[in-house]
Fold:
Amino acid sequence: MSTSREGDLPRTLMQMAGAPSEPPPLGETALVLIDCQREYVDGALPPNGVGPALAEAGKLLAAARAAGAPVVHVVHRGRPGGGAFDPEGPYFAEADEVAAVAGESCIEKALPNAFAGTDLHQTLEGLERKQLVFAGFQTHMCISSTVRAALDLGYASTVVGTACATRDLPDGGGGVVAAAELHRAELVALSDRFALVVENSSVW
Structure:
């Protein structure tokens, strides 16, 4: 299905539907931070640009707190015994830039989609928030999976692009898809129907 006439710039489905091009006020949203854990800083799965992404996530978190937006911290729980995200290991904890404080919700997940097998949906219902802001890791995996599921559950999502990151991946043909290319492509895909994508927290 074509979404543009020949010679025109393509448009997203959200643009064609007249969806808002600016995010809602931060105080009317809930900030959902996904997998901002030390596994991605010091462990086996460091995304490209994890430092700048965490710094931007920290700015976003500070802005959300100042605006009175509830914050939900989602962390991935692996199997105990030394693998990735080992809950008994040193890399399970959140990175210092985004560590939870008293009163903020913390949810553990075992699958890429943070709604699957968790009480994230119930938590957000209790917070009476249908507008969500997402940041974290990895763009192509847990961010994408959760944002796509959020649409099915009736949420409107905003993704802060520079507060997310991913890693290089093999392309299945002997080559590599660079992290920056994968990150950009995933954000573009999400922006077609699933979320408003903004560059950074300065939009608020």
About this structure: Residues 50-67 form the longest helix (18 residues). Helices lie at 13-16, 50-67, 120-127, 139-152, 179-193. The beta strands are 30-34, 71-76, 105-109, 131-137, 156-165, 169-170, 176-177, 196-198. DSSP finds five helices and eight strands in the chain.
